[in-house]
Amino acid sequence: MKFTNGYWLTRPNVEALYAREAYELRVGDDGESLDILATTKPVGGRNDILNLPTFDVHITTPAEGIIRVVARHWDGATQAYGFPLNVDADKHREYVSTDAQGNGDGEVGEDGASVSLTSGPLSVKVTKGSPWNLSFEADGKTITHSLNKGIGRFKLNELSAVSAQPVGEFGVTTDGSAFDESDVFSAVKLSLGVGEQVFGLGERFGAYVKNGQSVDIWNEDGGTASEQGYKDIPFYMTSNGYGVLVNNRGHVSFEIGSEDTEAVQFSVPGEEVDFCVVYGPTPKEILRRYTGLVGRPANVPAWSYGLWLTTSFTTKYDEKTINSFIDGMADRGIPLSVFHYDCYWMRQFQWCDFEWDKRFFGDIESTLKRLHDEKHLHICAWINPYVGQRGKMFEEGKQKGYLVKKANGDVWQTDLWQAGMGLVDFTNPAACDWFADKVKHLLRQGVDAIKTDFGERIPRDVVWYDGSDKLSMHNWYTQLYNQTVFKAIEEERGKGNAVLYARSATVGGQRQPCHWGGDCESTFNGMAQSLRAGLSLVSSGFGFWSHDIGGFEGAKPDSAVYKRWSAFGLLGSHSRMHGSTVYRVPWLFDEEDEKNGVALRPGETAVDVVRKFTKLKLSLMPYIYRIGLEPHRNGTPVMRSMFMEFPDDLTARPLDRQYMFGPSLLVAPVFTYSGDVDYYLPKGTWVNWFTGETVRTDAGVWRHERHDFDSIPLWVRDGSVIVTHPGAESAEYEFGRNPEVRVYLDQVGSASVEVVEEDGSSVTFDAVKTADGVKVTSSDGCDFTARLASGDSVASVDGVVVLRG
């Protein structure tokens, strides 16, 4: 939200107050906090304190390397709802230092004296007097600071000062921007250094680098071709080694060098702004500390990494249709791990009542048992938190008070999506238990995973059971919804065996994986938008991410789009084929090509492409499962931006058409019909996975290539040891039993990799390269074969292989 008119003026009808002077500095009684009285003009004498607004600024450190600042104008105003934070009780890392003697009650003395609070490598420093200066320092340098006008309070004398748009049903203006029932906003500016770049803020479909963008943290069902997002996260990180969390569940508005070109400004409605600065200095260290503060993703089961196929959305299907899809995939040699039933497993107008439509699925428990036992499939089913009034759940929820109400006591209803639908009130513990019981019944019928759709369309003029602030519930609702469902799955299946397929999220949503990228266009642009959103999401604390292979919106995607997207989608954490009005089974695209006279060489049909990359992903399960444990261990995501893996490479930082799949594999999706692709290999040695070509570069190199449909730039980083199982037909097997070990060591040296099984056991493979060759050993003497980048594989003897070359 912009409050100013250029550098000097405010917008019409906007009154601004800024922190101008640190008038009083006090050290907390515990010696581990700071309290600052900031005045809105310099105080020269006693008469200046009259009629003078102030800010109270309270500074603490909730965990090592993190500093929290709460700035408030009026203490009596309703305080903002923040996120649950994991405060570290170990306080020995925190201390206050001053450069001047206090007066005995914690107050710092004369102007010019400074006080600092330190937590691990990060410190915050305040200097008494004018001008206002709140400085964050690490490694002997200032990483960011809040200078003059750095803390502000803005009163809008007319709402037209920021928006003249009327308000719609769900609390947004008709132009799509978020609306706040407030005429007061609090804001903070944190400086940006020359060349400093900003990343994150959840799922954003625009450029990965956020500089120059205005971003509203206000979840909406806006599709992937808009500035709106399904998963808006008020957290960003920068290339200067730190991240910032704005601790507010409601509408947070960011101006990233878009109002003040030298700063990030974030504003919230009300009299208080609360934020945390999280130090790294690397992106992975920032995420380790940040996810330690807000929660880390749970582990997911191995089967979830395989290929998911769905009914698609509005297509017609029954048990016969579903069998034809499943059998068709098997007949064509395409291993399938999960089958998903989308909305119409329930009768129309009755979503979401958890009742199978018996016209098409008469004996669903027998069907699901057969798919489990005979087809070795896991099952996913679609739900949402909206309850259509024709379903049995509506009357039950109404009678028991489990649906959100209006101020007059009526159940809130709308005809948008399902006729007369109500909304489950997840602020009511009894309603949570009621909804969870429905989920558990579905699981007991044979469902393994739940697609938790929607959660963004949250009404404004309603009353919540627990009295929650209506603006804060707009974004927070999805967390209550998803954690209710995830908890139900964990209680039925056990920890590590629960998985969602969720669309919406806020801070905390990363704890309930995984999430997909929403309703994307079935075009190359839709594919690129999805990738940009995924890169932003995993830079915001989310460890797992997926998208609709082939795209969702529109008619059947072009065959070329489908095949290019399949290669991309199967080189990521979770892979699902899904569409809106058209099935996504690959042979339909081959039939269309044949009908249109498209000539393809062997290996380039849609069936060939899907089969090749599905089997490639399954063969990589020892690698994928291990990197899939990192989000829970340390917050590092499975899929990573180039900035995250190569933060010091200035060329790599802004790249949003390629990514790292774990630490070792570089993937550059192809976004063209011709197969032309441009991508960048950072400094070092890289080996092409498919051809064995080796590239050595001292400063990074751009490449231009043309790829057939059955190919994609896939490169292995030097120093990697990758354990594979060529020929794997499932995502579930013993990863360390008789594997092939690929060694990528360009120079004399060593490397190792741990292969972890689902039961927690592990085996380590060590590779040592000398002038005589490469020796590979297994920690438990197990059998394996080993190979160099382009060499033949050699079988082990007593758990040892010696390779020449």
In words, what does this structure look like?
The chain is an alpha+beta fold and 805 residues long. Among the domains are: 4-151, Immunoglobulin-like (Sandwich), CATH 2.60.40.1760; 302-378 and 427-454 and 497-504 and 511-632, Alpha-Beta Barrel (TIM Barrel); 734-805, no CATH class. 19% of the residues lie in helices and 28% in strands. It has 13 helices and 45 strands. The strands form 10 sheets. Strands 4-5-6-7-21-18-17-15 form an 8-stranded antiparallel sheet. Strand 10 and strand 11 (134-138) form a beta hairpin. Helix 5 (429-444) runs parallel beside helix 6 and helix 8 packs parallel to helix 10. The longest helix is centred in the middle third of the chain and has 24 residues, at 470-493. The protein is globular, with a radius of gyration of 28 Å. The termini are far apart. 52% of the residues are buried. Residues 164-168 and 172-178 have low confidence and may be disordered.
